Hints:
This protein is mostly helical. It has 2 domains: about 1-55, Winged helix-like DNA-binding domain superfamily/Winged helix DNA-binding domain (Arc Repressor Mutant, subunit A), CATH 1.10.10; about 60-100. The protein has 6 helices and 2 strands. It has helices spanning about 1-5, 15-20, 25-40, 60-75, 80-85, 90-100; strands at about 45, 55. A two-stranded antiparallel ribbon has the order 1-2. Helix 2 crosses helix 3. The mean pLDDT is about 90.
Amino acid sequence: MLAALWATEQALTPAEIQAGLGGGLAYNTVHTILKRLYDKGLVLRDADGRRGCYRPAKNAAELTAQAMRRALDRDPDPASALDRFVASLSPEETRILRGLLDGEA
């Protein structure tokens, strides 16, 4: 559901989101999921003056970074968690991380 919202710059109605997902979910299911995402602060409602429209509260990168931060904060040994995470990176991801840490973003 969030991927459908991230794919556009405009706020979408539940019907537009349902159509974008291929119609495999019932309208009521889409609406219920959007309400739950709204209650969690992941989407915003009534954006851009269109009643009943939704847009993401954060982009994918922001949401991922927030989840990573929360995971590290919960871990009793964040250094070990980071070590395991870095060991799992591909060579390209390692290159990107090195560039970011060196301020070459």
